[in-house]
Structures are given as C-alpha cells and as structure tokens.
Amino acid sequence: MDFLNGSFRIGRLLGINVRVHMLFILWVAFRLSSSHGDVKFALAFLALLFGIVLIHEFGHCLGARSVGGDAEEILLWPLGGLAFAHAPMRPWPQFVTVACGPLVNVVFCIISGAAIAIIFGGVEYVPIGIRSLSYPPITEEWHRWLVLFYVINYYLLLFNMLPIYPMDGGQLLWTILWPFLGLRRATLVATQIGLGGAVLLGGWGMMMSNYMLVAIAVMGGLTCYQRMMAARSGFIAEEFLSVDPMLSDKRRTGFWSRLFRRRPKMSAPLAENPNPGGWESKVTAEDALSAQVDEILEKVHRHGIQSLSYVERQTLERVTRLRRERDAGFPGSLNP
To answer: Sign of dihedral through CA atoms 219, 191, 300, 7?
Structure first.
C-alpha cells in the first residue's frame, strides 16, 4: 500500500515535507462530530496529540540524518505518524533512527513531569510504571493542559514500546538482536514476537471495544507477516546489503549540516564540467545492479514481498546465487 497516495502537503521544515492523509481529515471530522458539544476542547486535544506525534516523527528523521541517512517525508494519518527515514542498513544507525522517536517523548515526560511535581508538591501526580494517575488539584487552565501534555507523552511512549513490528519497540528489538543473530534470524524472531503481540493487542482491543487498537493490531500483524515471509524467502539477508554512495557522501558533511540540511558555502562558482559523462562512465554494472537490488528491497520493506514482479524476484535470486558463489570462491560476476 502506498501511504502517500491520497495525501497532501501542509508544510516543509528542515527539508522534510509534512503531509496529511485524507483519512486523517475524515477521522478528525468524525471525532469532532462525536465530541458531545465540546468541540473547542476536542479540537485543541487533537492538535496537541498530533503535534506531539509530529515532533516524535521529526525525531526519527533527525536521528536518521545524524548517522548519515536522510528523510524527506512525514505522513500523518489516523493511526499516528509515519516517518519515511532511510538510514544505513547497519544495526547502530538503524537503532539510533528508531530510538530518537521515543527519546522525544522521554524528554517531554521528564520536563513536564518535573513541572507537575514542583507545581503540585509531590510525585504522586506523576505516573510511574502503569499505575493510575492521581489527578492533581487543578487551579489554572494551563495546569490542565500541562497534565494532558504529560499523560499523552507518557502513554504514547508506553504504547510505542510494545514489541510489535513496525512499532518502535518491535524495531528496537530487531536492531538489538541483529548483531547477535544476523539480519535474517533477527527479523524472523522480531516478527514472530510481533505477531504474538499483535494478536494480544487485538484481543484486548476487542474486549475493550476499542476498534482503533484493533486496527493498529491488524496493521502491525500484517506488517510482521510480510516481513517474516520476506525473511523466510531469503529476501532479507546480509548478502543483499550494499553501501549507498549517496549516504556515504552525507557522512562526509558536518554533523549539524546533515541534521538541519545546511548546504555548504561555495567559495567560487562551479566551473563547467570539462568531461561531461565522465562520472557516469565510472559507474560499474555491479554498482548499478546493487542499486537495483536496494530499490527492490525497499519495495519489499514498504509493500511486502507479494508486491514484487517476476523480473524483480528473478533479479534477487540471481544476485543471491552469484554472491554465494563469490563468497564460496567460485568465479562469478554481478554484471547483468
């Protein structure tokens, strides 16, 4: 499913397009229509909720840039946010990219929780673990919104850390297992745990008559199943990983320039290329095929293994066979 279809851009910040899906607009309209007259509060609450979600997604994007990756799109839709962040396919860059999203909520919880404890004179009004929140004595309207700010961040953090791929908890588990089990086995273990978690979450949602949880469980379960089948079929393995020259170039720029997309200042205008086409002539057939494999794997990641055409499947099988022969010492070439 192409989530960007049916969406429109509402702004651009730090080189990242922020888009809103039409389903999000319909969902907000439904929530407002069922707010039982308090439309102003409902609208302010939704703005606060998805404002926090948006900053959370920016955390993922900036995390990817900090390790040499990139991100150019954020999509808001009824089930939350999606950051289209691309980091180098290694355990640490992937871990940083995923972890920087929940880290935003951790920072917000620390700041707002400390403010609540100071204002109301005790930590009993700051939930720890999963115990119920003791509602503080509200005397000012902004106190109410401070508590709501903390509660939203707190429960978004807990929910996102559920080990259901592709939620943050499931992806963090995957990146932690990767160095110990390898990419393929780590994917299998993480997705199998995620499938179990999705079943439990869906069952809980049915018991609570919370169909939003059921929808999230279904989406998470489908994603886990697609990733698990891709790993079982051999389409997710270290042998497919290659160095993206675009990401390598980004690593050579300064940290803050990568983070905020600052362009380096040019000391003089660029001279006309004396050898047009020279760079293209240096790109080998193996590099081109590796780039094609990266595109196919990205398609598997986003849309599932069933989205591959016959030609794409044959390409992956051929590359797998040739790389195995090369690793085993047999003559082979990646040239098409």
So the answer is: positive
> E strand or H helix at 292, and its extent?
helix 285-303
Q: Does pTM top 0.90 for this prediction? A: no
Q: Which residues contact 210 (CB under 8 A, 6 or more apart)?
A: 204
Count of beta carbons in the 10 Å neighbourhood of residue 79:
15
Residues whose CB is less than 8 angstroms from the CB of residue 257 and which lie 6 or more positions away in sequence, other chains included: 263, 264
DSSP class of 240:
G
In tens, the pLDDT along 223-234 reads 999 999 888 887
Per-residue pLDDT of 79-94, as tens digits, reads 788 898 888 888 999 9
Asked if residues 166 and 97 have their Cβ atoms less than 8 Å apart, the reply is: no
Angstrom distances, CA of residue 83 to CA of 55, 58, 264, 327 = 11, 7, 26, 36
The β-bridge relationship of strands 7-13 and 70-77 is unpaired
Residue 193 CB coordination number (10 Å)? 19
